[in-house]
Structures are given as structure tokens and as C-alpha cells.
Write a structure and sequence with these properties.
The complex is a heterodimer. By secondary structure, chain A is mainly β. Chain A has no helices and eleven strands. In chain A, a hairpin with a 6-residue loop joins strand 5 (45-51) and strand 6. By secondary structure, chain B is an all-beta fold. Chain B has strands spanning 9-12, 18-23, 34-39, 46-49, 63-68, 71-76, 85-93, 98-101, 105-109. In chain B, a hairpin with a 6-residue loop joins strand 3 (34-39) and strand 4 (46-49). Chain B is globular and about 40 Å long. Chain B starts with 8 loop residues before the first strand and ends with a strand. Classes of the chains: A mainly beta, B mainly beta. Chains A and B meet through strand 5 of A and strand 3, strand 7 and strand 8 of B.
Chain lengths: 118, 110
Amino acid sequence: QVQLVESGGGLVKPGGSLRLSCAASGFTFSDYYMSWIRQAPGKGLEWVSYISSSGSTIYYADSVKGRFTISRDNAKNSLYLQMNSLRAEDTAVYYCARGDPMFAFDIWGQGTMVTVSS
Amino acid sequence: QSVLTQPPSVSAAPGQKVTISCSGSSSNIGNNYVSWYQQLPGTAPKLLIYDNNKRPSGIPDRFSGSKSGTSATLGITGLQTGDEADYYCGTWDSSLSALVFGGGTKLTVL
């Protein structure tokens, strides 16, 4: 079935780095835009970044611009988020989601928790 | 402070109808499609409405969406206890070049 599975979350110190992965299955990954969306504990949803199907178009939220890098490997059906210079306010559950943000996200992963703390 | 404004909470009795508003501006709702998501406790969000008023397959017609000007509305009829969740609106903001979400609305079915 159509599925997205995130991995790579964990505990990291402020200023540290982490790389999240999202494995896609059940659909033609290379046909779809993909995004990362996060949710801080007890808070609402915050869009982080999106990448077009070919990887040629990328957008970031201002809160992560210059620190996070989104990428994808269509041969491996995988989406990535490289997070550098992490801050306490980056603590959140990170979801990968399928879809063009101009329209909607129709498939979401279960999320992976990132905790930034000393 | 979210770009899109939703009421923090709404409530209604089982079987009743509720509406959740989402207010924005011409740079977001006014000129882009709105989507709505349901997040049950402890789970990932789920798409309820896309393109302002379309339902994905599997979403019952108790859920409806509409848009007028710079505001959008999610309607839920025949409320069930299983509808208790947080609901979020989302749309692209052309000025910010960013996807923006409302702050979320917690639905309580009394």
C-alpha cells in the first residue's frame, strides 16, 4: 500500500546535525512533489520545506533557511532532510508528506521525533 | 502567530453540525487552493479536503469545504465522538513563497 516511513530522529545537542530519511513505497515516487512538515510538542503544524518531483525546485520556510537542506533520491524512493546548526526550537515531530503544496498533502508518514537539548 | 486564523476550539453535541473558519488574505486563501487536515490524538494528520471543496476517496460526505474571498470554512455534519480531533487549514502564500497552516482548531464532541 501507499506508505511513507520516516527515520533518523533522535536527541542532539544545540548546534549539532541530524539527517532525516523518508522511505516511500506503493507509488511512483519520482512523479510526486514531497515536503517536510514539523510539529513542536503541543503546537500546530509548521511547513519546513518542499522539493519538486525532479528536485529542480526547492523552497524552505524562513525559520530553517540556510540551516536545513532537502534532497531526494528517486532511484531509492527516498526523501531526506539534512539539519545543521540545530536549535532548541527545532524540537518537533518531523513528518514527510506527499503532494504539491500549491494543492494538498495526501499521504503523510507517521513522523520521527527530533529533540534538541543539552 | 499563524498567517491563517482559526478559532482555537469549537464544540457541539453528537449528531449536530459544526463549522470551523480559516481566515487569511489575498496573498494566501484569496488566490490559492485551501486544504483541510484532521489530526486525531497521537496520530499523523490526514487530508480531509483539497482544492477548497473536494474530498479524497474514503472521506465521508459529512465533511465539506468552502471558500469565499479570503476565508475558508470546514463543515462537519452528523458529529460523532470519533470526530474529536485537531483540524488545520493550509494554503500556499504567494508573498511568502511558503505553505502556511492555521493554528489549528480542537473539536470537542460533547
